[in-house]
């Protein structure tokens, strides 16, 4: 497995990774979870994918994507502020260079099935570690996210507890909530330990394209 950051200036060189990620998101969010999401053929994508996000991807040796998450600055449009503002309660949406927003966190549990002693998927810990490393690379102090109560429990078990912004609300079939994940040495060490790695996981350049 390889853990990479794919930034907007790299998209044109790695269209195969983008396509694999959008296919994974379709399988997870539409086909498996049946969320109300925008799909185009075999891809799931939305307006926030047009805002030059950074994608954190976990790929196989043959450049298939088995896990991904999207990071956006909170100084522009965000899913929390512009799509789910009700989850803020009476609080303002985070708007800061020191806060990123994460969304579309997904893991292909069929292709990345290795579990850990805690019972959670090892790839989940790798992606959590990549998020903390990605936050630090952006010189941010926190990540804000919209998630559900199941993921809130997973984060707590993993050692990276979510700080709720407001109380959960039902959105469709999901009990959703917004919260902050803080930059934490202890959390990063917990992710490394549970993913059975010794140090940084995130590479800044994806695997080279196969020769023609």
Radius of gyration, Cα only, in angstroms? 16 Å
Strand % is 25-35%
Ranges where pLDDT stays below 50 over 5 or more residues in a row are none
Series of secondary-structure elements, N-terminal to C-terminal: EHEEEEHEHEHEEEHE
* Tally of DSSP β-strands: 11
Indicate the percent of residues in helices.
25-40%
If helices are DSSP runs of H or I spanning 4 or more residues, what is the number of helices?
Answer: 5
Secondary-structure-derived class = alpha+beta
Distance between the termini: 23 Å
Mean of residue pLDDT values: 91
Q: Main β-sheet: number of strands, strand sense, barrel status?
A: 9 strands, mixed
Tell me the overall shape. Answer: globular
List the SSEs and their pairings.
Blueprint: E1 2-6, H1 15-32, E2 39-40, E3 43-44, E4 54-59, E5 65-73, H2 79-82, E6 99-107, H3 122-137, E7 142-148, H4 149-158, E8 163-164, E9 169-171, E10 174-182, H5 185-195, E11 202-203
Parallel strand pairs: 1-11, 6-7
Antiparallel strand pairs: 1-4, 2-3, 4-5, 5-6, 7-10, 8-10, 9-10
């Amino acid at each position: 497995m390889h853990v990479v950051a794919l930034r907007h200036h790299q998209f044109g060189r790695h269209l195969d990774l983008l396509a694999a990620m959008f296919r994974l998101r379709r399988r997870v969010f539409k086909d498996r979870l049946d969320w109300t999401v925008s799909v185009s053929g075999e891809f799931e994508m939305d307006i926030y994918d047009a805002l030059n996000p950074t994608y954190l991807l976990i790929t196989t040796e043959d450049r298939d994507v088995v896990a991904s998450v999207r990071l956006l600055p909170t100084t522009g449009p965000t899913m929390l502020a512009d799509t789910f503002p009700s989850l803020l309660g009476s609080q303002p949406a985070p708007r800061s260079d020191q806060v990123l927003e994460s969304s579309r966190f997904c893991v292909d549990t069929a292709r990345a099935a290795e579990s850990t002693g805690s019972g959670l998927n090892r790839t989940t810990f790798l992606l959590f570690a990549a998020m903390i490393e990605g936050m630090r690379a952006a010189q941010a102090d926190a990540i804000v996210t919209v998630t559900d109560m199941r993921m809130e429990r997973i984060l707590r078990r993993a050692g990276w507890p979510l700080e709720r912004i407001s109380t959960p609300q039902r959105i469709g079939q999901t009990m959703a909530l917004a919260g902050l994940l803080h930059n934490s040495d202890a959390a990063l060490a917990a992710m490394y330990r549970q993913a059975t790695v010794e140090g940084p996981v995130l590479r800044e350049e994806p695997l080279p394209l196969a020769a023609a």
